[in-house]
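[Help] Beginner question about ligand-bound structures

Sorry if this is basic. My supervisor gave me a protein sequence and a SMILES string for zinc ion and asked me to "get the holo structure". I don't really know what that means in practice or what format the answer should be in. Inputs are pasted below exactly as I got them.
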Amino acid sequence: MTDAPFRVQPALDDDNRFFWTAGREGVLRMARCSQCRHWIHPPAPYCSECGGRDVAPSDLGGRGTVWSYTVNHHSWDGGTEPYVIVLVELDEQPGLRLTSNLVGCDPDQVTIGMPVRVTFEERDDIWYPLFEPAGST
Ligand SMILES: [Zn+2]
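Answer (accepted):
No worries, everyone starts somewhere. Holo just means with the ligand present. The predicted complex, written as structure tokens, is below.
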């Protein structure tokens, strides 16, 4: 077993399966309206912007910035080091935000507005989209 933190396993259904399995192909994928091009997250079968029903999964670039964050010091599973919960605003659309964890970064180094990119952690055929600092390479 790895020392990765405990993760709540999402319940996959036809509306969100593409989101949790796109990491297999190394991409971040979200629902997008075919009419007004609005990105929709969490996944929904209709567009929150125009009400359109023509919504389909589409690939994102996987880059964004830290919109907000918190450092968790409580050890939920008995062994986890402090870890960073981030709210990332994706580059594609203002307000398109994803709650995740920041990895590969000292919790003391996180800042609002920090550029990040997606990385995936696979467990039981679910690819959790996590983020890491985008500035290093
Ligand atoms: Zn729309």
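A couple of things worth pointing out: The mean pLDDT is 91. The first helix runs from residue 17 to 21. Feel free to follow up in the thread.
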